[in-house]
Amino acid sequence: MEESAGYQLETVYFDTDDLVLAGCGINVRRRTGGGDPGWHLKLPMGRNKRREIHEPLGSDPDRVPDHLLKFVRVYLRDRTIEPVVRLRIERTVHRLHGEGNSVLAEITDDQVLAENILQEPGKQWREWDVELVDGSGDLLNAAKSILTGAGARRAGHASKLAWALGEGNRQDESVSPRRPRRKDPAGNILLAFVHRQVTELIKHDPGVRSGEPDSVHLMRVSSRRIRSALATYRTLLDPAVADGLRGELKWLADVLGVARDTEIIRSRLRDLISADPAELMMGPISQRIDEELGADHHKARADILAALEDERYYRLLDGLEKLLSAPPLTSSASKPARKSAAALIRKDVRRLRRAVGTAKAAQEGSARDQSLHEARKRAKRLRYAAEAASSVCGNRGARLAAAAHGIQKNLGQYQDSVVIRNLLRRLGVEAHLRGENGFSYGRLHYMEQSRAKESEAEFLKSWKRFRKVPFGN
Fold this sequence. Notes:
Helix content: 55-70%
Number of helices: 13
Largest sheet: 8 strands, antiparallel
Shape: globular
Distance between the termini: 75 Å
Strand content: 5-15%
């Protein structure tokens, strides 16, 4: 057994005055002394998993680095963050060596003095921690027996911070509601689905702020799923609350959508250009497309970041959390889940049938494009409604969701082509006015037109399959 020299640590934890971060299992701390000084952020990533992000100490001990704040802003919103707990630790580390002088385990002996800045008095305790290095689980069990035999007892807290804050402020990650059952109240379907999607929306917020791939898409999908569920299951809630949240969710999805749509268009056009013979791509077409879409994406990205710092976004999150904590349910929400969900989903089936009928009857051109787009939105709403009720509607609900997804996918590809063709037409006109060769814009437009016809043909096939799904017939 090797004993290292003792050293001192000071750790200051930051939170709101009502301990929002601690309630979410999040730690923001500034540590000095020891071998790991700096700012540390610990984020929950599922059961017993954490993501750690570090930043240098910096010159201001009371200013949390902006890079860390963007990962927790979705929890803080417009609340301020300040020191809440200060830990002063006298630490001694013992290293247990094995054959060849390998380190089997490190045993840390901490004398802790905790100052709860929000409420006096503080606490003082001694804490042992055993961490395996090259040792086995048997060694850990043996260490536990020796320590408990010497009078130690298992810590009743998840962390030093949790113990310093006290029992009333124990850190506890949010527990998802159980899957609704057939005879549960119908309101459980909506609340369980919204809870999952709000959790997803909040989870992807830091990724959107830091530019992580696909985070904008995933956050947008979550917002759309919530909005769709509030539409289908609207009769289960106070309509003023449901409609108000739907309006704000549409605003958020629209803000996120510009950047996402630009990403899709850019990727599609790059694939088309790279797949075509180089001699058929005349003029600076790649450059012009990148300039156009790059500027659009840059502005869309700036708009997203501004929206995520807007009070409107914070109030939307507050409203969603209030919906879950104190749901304004109507009497219809107390009816049996399976029967109620089936009736509401059948209404969405009928809406989709009417939208498809309108689209099939529409003349070629913008009217048909718009009616197919409306059918796509109806299919998406139906899909999300069926997915929300999957645990109570059984296999029929799953088949319906899959069939609606197929329609949504085919019509989504059609709509992408509509947007891309409009862009290519405009860029072709601008190229002509600049005296550039517009041939390649026309060629790409034709290729996209062919793609749209293929997507429409696939949609008609998927519609035939959809009509065979028994749900709603």
